[in-house]
Design brief:
With about 90 residues, the chain is mainly alpha-helical. Helices cover about 90% and strands about 0% of the residues. The protein is built from two helices and no strands. It has helices at about 5-40, 45-85. The two termini are about 10 Å apart. Pfam families: Bac_export_3.
């Protein structure tokens, strides 16, 4: 295997990982900032208040973007990795 092909495939794989994880990480970030702001404004320091909204936001975004994530991963495997393994 050529080094250029290896690094290009690695770059594409990392980009697919970034694209598929961005919605979930963005939801966790936004919900964390909102809950942190709410806690700072109300002086409520409850640990479950930070955990439960983040978990619910992550699950909701995962459920909504599951089709996009699976389609992205499937297209990466079928267009890039399977032909490389098969030697096409």
């Amino acid at each position: 295997m050529d080094e250029m092909l290896f690094f290009d495939t690695l770059r594409q794989g990392l980009w697919v990982a970034v694209i598929t994880s961005t919605p979930i990480l963005a939801a966790a970030l936004i919900s964390g900032v909102v809950v942190g702001l709410f806690q700072a404004l109300t002086s409520i320091q409850e640990m479950t208040l930070t955990f439960v909204p983040k978990l619910l936001a992550i699950v909701a975004v995962f459920w909504v973007s599951m089709g996009f994530m699976s389609q992205t991963l499937t297209s990466y495997f079928t267009d890039t990795l399977i032909p490389m393994i098969a030697g096409m």
